[in-house]
Amino acid sequence: MAHPLSKFAFCPACGSGRFMDNDEKSRRCADCSFVYYLNPSSACVAVIVDGQGRLLVERRGREPGKGTLDLPGGFADFCETVEEGLCREVLEETGLKVVSSEYLFSLPNEYFFSGFTIPTLDMFFRCEVADASALQAGDDAADCFWLPLSEVKPELFGLGSIRRGVERLIAER
Hints:
Layout: E1 19-23, E2 26-29, E3 35-37, E4 41-47, E5 54-60, E6 69-70, E7 73-75, H1 82-94, E8 98-113, E9 116-129, E10 141-148, H2 160-171
Parallel strand pairs: 4-9
Antiparallel strand pairs: 1-2, 2-3, 4-7, 5-6, 5-10, 8-9
């Protein structure tokens, strides 16, 4: 298997072509000694259950996992807390405003995008929303809908950490 940074052929500091594997998560420049570490990107996942025991799910509109089920969420942006990213992502994808959130757990994941595998750390939050009647799919969600918890099937969730997270949530019910 290729090093996760194998697509990075040149040193970003000096431009040298002698940018080589240093260890399992970094590359080092043999000319200027610059070291680049591939740390996970922060991602957030919203677990939203309504008063009728239904989980808010999405159908992915884009790869990876296009057409499979997902939970609202995404990457935290630069200079944004994970909680801020959580609120922004839920609003973008569902039209719903998060009014409170509680951290549940995290899971490592790999997200394949633009021909590159991005390591992520997916943080799951239990969320309350202001007005569920405003539900409308947006951004990269092709659809969003409420699914009774008794009908949730983890194998229908396309991203690995989301599937494992849903399995964990069901087991803890």
